[in-house]
Amino acid sequence: MANVPDNIQEQLILLRQAYTSQLLGKVGQIEQIWAQRHDQWDDRILATFHRMTHSLAGSGATFGFSVLSDRAYTLERFLRSMRDNGHTLTTEEEDQISTLLVLLQQATTQPDLEMAMSQLDHHILASASSQPQKENRLIYLVKDDLHLAKDLIQQISYFGYTVHGFETLAELRNAIHQAVPAAIIIDIVASEGAFAGTDVITSIQQDQPASIPIIFISVRSDLIARLQAVQAGGHAYFTKPVEISALIDRLDQLTVYPTHDPYRIMIIEDEATLADYYAFTLQQAEMVTVVVTDPLLVMQPLIEFRPDLILMDVYMPRCSGLDLATVIRQWEAYVSIPIVFLSTETNRDKQLNAMSLGGDDFLMKPIHPDHLIKSVESRARRSRILRSFMVKDSLTGLLNHTKTKEQLSIELLRSQRQRTNLVFAMIDIDRFKSINDTYGHQVGDRVIKSLARMLSQRLRKTDCIGRYGGEEFAVILPATDGPTAVRVLDELRAGFAQIRHQASNQEFSVTFSCGLAAYPSHSDVTSLSDAADRALYAAKSLGRNQVVLAGS
User: Fold this and answer.
1) Whole-angstrom Cα distance, residue 273 to residue 270?
2) Coil, strand or helix: which one is 542?
3) Do domains 138-255 and 264-391 have the same CATH topology?
């Protein structure tokens, strides 16, 4: 929709006005088809008559014409029965249709806008005001000897958390009044008493509208201490010395809110105003939409938009939704994309038949905005999860080797088109075989996960991170020049070297080497990859634990 103001309420008003202004014309077209029945009447005309009536039945209530929807639905069921049975009209049936059309015309002047639209406004405005929760990286750590806690604070901070330390429980209380943290790490024992830590947490949680994630640490591992922690509202319990990778794992689970690119929804609906309404509704839930009103023009936007889900009307001109879904499924690239049908069709057998032809769900028109959002969102989420199994490394959750190379091609093309810089980095954990041989593969996996986590948390959302294989990683840094990438990766290298890993009551540290190659100095995927690989080899040859930029 062009020139639509930002204000949500105004957008709703514009959509209603557009629908209302078109309504008399739509009913007039239906009446015109009916008036020509004696001159020409065949299955094709009946199908058009049915489709147009079906459209009114599905859209009327959405825009505040519930009486219109009810009457159109009655007519639509009558026509559907005629279409399916394939018999010619009797005089009695003609009279029934004529009567229904008169009632339909009357309903165009009987909007229930104030009641129905206020209800729909409420759903949409609620969706719009429900913003994603911002990620909170603030951690409070309480230890009566901050000198001893300094190392733990530093270790946690390497993974992108901001850690504030407090020596007394009173300091903790005062800090919470100023800013609520993402989590609290606290010793069960404090200078105020043997279970002062759990006692103060119990009190703090009672004062909070939402529970704060709590991690208790202690030298005690007995059942009584653990029960005390659970009863105080603890979410995790670690005995000293604390294994930092396990602690960060739990912190991530408790505090890192999952973020994702907006779900991409393609809407195929010949009723333009209704399609815009669906698009507007989904946009308020942070989804990205594209509307196709002519089903025969779907292929180009399908290729360019790459939807997570297709929302499709069943009855459309020139091509039914069922036929279009069957065609879309013939392309291997679109076999797994969920297709959700929208229709007034109540016959369960026909709904199941629609799903057998390629549909994943069947939603009834008219549909409330919150139901539409939840149905689409849940399907799109499951679709992404299934796709992630094909493109993500199972251990780290990073892109796998194949997807990383594919992403490098995409980002390089974008850099060429936008005339921006790009850097490709290859990272290899130093002496990783020795780690596996000395401490075992399980410990080696923890080291790999800790590096993956650090890269994910310290790099930008626009950077692409992949596990290339074994102990080797790859990073794509769009809109970044060589010197900047060297500085960023060198900071990560230094931070990773400071992390202390534990195994069999031993502590050890690990380093990595990194090779970088920059575009446009290296202008294609092969030369970028080869140059980064050579730079990595140079970093290893120069003594490991360093970052080398190709050509520098």
Assistant:
1) 9
2) coil
3) yes
Signed CA dihedral, 542, 543, 549, 552: sign only: negative
Tell me which amino acid residue 121 is.
D
Report how far residue 114's alpha carbon sits from residue 281's, in angstroms, rounded to the nearest whole number.
19
> What distances in angstroms separate CA 285 from CA 128, 262, 307, 312, 377, one per listed residue?
6, 9, 16, 19, 9
For the chain, what are the domain ranges? 8-129, 138-255, 264-391, 401-549
Q: How many CA atoms lie within 13 A of 467 on its CB side?
A: 21
Helix (H) or strand (E) holding 311: strand 309-313
Please work out, in degrees rounded to the nearest 5, the angle formed at the alpha carbon of residue 324 by the alpha carbons of 43 and 49.
Answer: 30
Q: How far is CA 312 from CA 161, 336, 379, in A?
A: 44, 16, 14
Homologous superfamily of the 8-129 domain (CATH): HPT domain (1.20.120.160)
Whether the link from the prior residue into 338 is cis, omega within 30° of 0, is no
Residue 445's nearest CA partner among 494, 385, 531, 503 is 503
**pTM for the complete prediction?**
0.58
Tell me the C-alpha distance between 422 and 403, whole Å: 18
Cα–Cα dist 205/190, whole Å: 18
Q: What are the Cα distances from residue 404, in Å, to 306, 459, 472, 518, 549?
A: 18, 16, 12, 16, 20
Instruction: Say which residues have a Cβ less than 8 Å from residue 56's Cβ, sequence separation at least 6.
Output: 26, 27, 30, 68, 69, 72, 76, 104
C-alpha to C-alpha distances, 385 to 22, 337, 358, 389, nearest whole angstrom: 41, 12, 20, 7
CATH architecture of residue range(s) 264-391: 3-Layer(aba) Sandwich (3.40)
Q: How far apart are CA 101 and CA 248, in angstroms?
A: 67
CB 108: neighbour CB atoms within 10 A?
19
The CATH superfamily holding the domain 401-549 is Reverse transcriptase/Diguanylate cyclase domain (3.30.70.270)
Query: What distance in Å separates the CA atoms of residue 280 and residue 282, rounded to the nearest whole number?
Result: 6
| Per-residue pLDDT tens over the stretch 139-185 | 999 987 766 688 889 899 988 899 999 988 889 999 999 999 999 99
Q: Which long-range contacts (CB under 8 A, 24 or more apart) does 43-51 make?
A: 43/83, 43/86, 46/79, 46/82, 46/83, 47/83, 48/317, 49/79, 50/76, 50/79, 50/80, 50/83, 50/315, 51/315, 51/316, 51/317
In CATH terms, is domain 138-255 a member of 2.20.25.90? no
Q: What is the DSSP letter of 392?
A: B
Low-confidence ranges of the chain (pLDDT < 70): 1-9, 12, 58, 86-89, 110, 112-135, 146-148, 191-194, 256-260, 346-347, 350, 354, 358
